[in-house]
Backbone:
């Protein structure tokens, strides 16, 4: 087996990852081990699964929390988060199922048909806060690994400041980690790179 040589910068990075020379010595003595981190999500037959846990954060608090961490929150998303219809929960762990857009033909990738497919799979409507929890949980790089550009939380649509019904969504677009909002109309069509977040029924 051939091994490529490490340059000094790579060696320094390894030492730093192990916590300095003390960490290196402990690693060589078998006192500490290195393991691959578990993936925070799994995919089965075009459906992505993971869990999130609510913590009572209000819509206005989500705006502050996400922006403080460097996320971007669109104006439409802010109006949804500030709505009286955004009702947070606390301490609820939810298994989320994201139906990938590739499961649907271009003609069938409509909100009403996606909801019908979710119902057929015994998936239920999520709380709107799911979008915030997803945004915080996953980096844009992880969403790219899912082969998605958007993850739309398929909650009950909430009227924004523009008077239209909206669904909160997570968006990666190369210029920031966005929490956005999209139209929630039954006939609204979606691109294939969209994922649609529902809740796995516990019944």
Residues:
């Amino acid at each position: 087996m051939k091994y490529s040589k490490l340059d000094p910068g790579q060696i320094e990075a390894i030492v730093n990852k192990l916590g300095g020379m003390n960490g290196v010595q402990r690693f060589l003595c078998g006192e500490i081990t290195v393991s691959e981190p578990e993936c925070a999500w799994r995919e089965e037959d075009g459906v992505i699964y993971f869990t999130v846990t609510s913590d009572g954060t209000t819509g206005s608090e989500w705006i502050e929390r996400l922006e403080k961490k460097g996320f971007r929150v669109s104006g439409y998303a802010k109006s949804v988060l500030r709505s009286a219809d955004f009702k947070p929960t606390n301490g609820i762990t939810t298994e989320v199922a994201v139906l990938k857009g590739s499961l649907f033909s271009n003609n069938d990738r409509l909100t009403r048909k996606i909801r019908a497919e979710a119902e057929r799979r015994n998936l239920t409507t999520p709380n709107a806060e799911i979008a915030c929890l997803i945004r915080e949980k996953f980096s844009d790089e992880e969403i790219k690994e899912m082969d998605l550009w958007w993850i739309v939380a398929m909650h009950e649509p909430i009227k924004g400041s523009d008077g239209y019904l909206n669904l909160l969504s997570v968006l990666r677009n190369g210029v920031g980690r966005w929490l956005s909002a999209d139209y929630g109309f039954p006939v609204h069509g979606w691109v294939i790179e969209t994922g649609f977040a529902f809740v796995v029924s516990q019944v």
Summary: Residues 1-35 form one domain. The mean pLDDT is 90.
